[in-house]
Amino acid sequence: MIEIIAGVWATCFLISLPITFWNVRSVVQKAKSPQFKTLNLNLAKVGMFWSLSSDGFQPLGERTAKDDTRKAMRSYMLIGGLGIFSVIGLLLLIAVSLSMHLLVNRTAQRVFASELTQNPNLDAEATQALVTSLS
Questions:
Q1: Rounded distance, CA 29 to CA 135, Å?
Q2: Which residues pair with 56 in a beta bridge?
Q3: Dihedrals phi, psi of 96, to nearest 5 degrees
Q4: In this predicted model, what pLDDT tens digit does every residue of 94-108 receive, in sequence order?
Q5: CB contact set of 50 (below 8 Å; sequence gap of 6+)
Q6: What does pTM read for this prediction?
Q7: What is the rounded distance in angstroms from the CA atom of residue 99 to the CA atom of residue 31?
Q8: Which of 82, 67, 65, 64 is nearest to 23 (CA)?
Q9: C-alpha closest to that of 111 among 96, 132, 125
Q10: In this structure, how many other beta carbons lie within 10 angstroms of the beta carbon of residue 18?
């Protein structure tokens, strides 16, 4: 019986570790990408930022883009930890990973294909107009 439990745990560990690494790595890559930096530079002109944890526009306030990136990474690491320690956690980790990488929000696709991510020299009015049209 102990061997079965150890085998299940080892399997969950070996599957969860690379998936968790993949999720965290993609958050870091997205946060460091020039498009993301340009997007948040433009959105700061109208008092907003792009949230990686909710894939949407958020008002700048107590939370900043850097705080939101940390929150997204913590969430993926927590779900990865659940995957390492249980079969149910592993299934949840797989579901979250598939939704994160395959079911990309259409708004996010439109935003990252827009001028907001291409031109860092947009003025506040142009930025607000683009945000309104993309929301």
A1: 24
A2: 51
A3: -65, -40
A4: 888 888 777 777 777
A5: 36, 39, 40, 43, 56, 57, 58, 65, 111
A6: 0.74
A7: 18
A8: 82
A9: 132
A10: 10
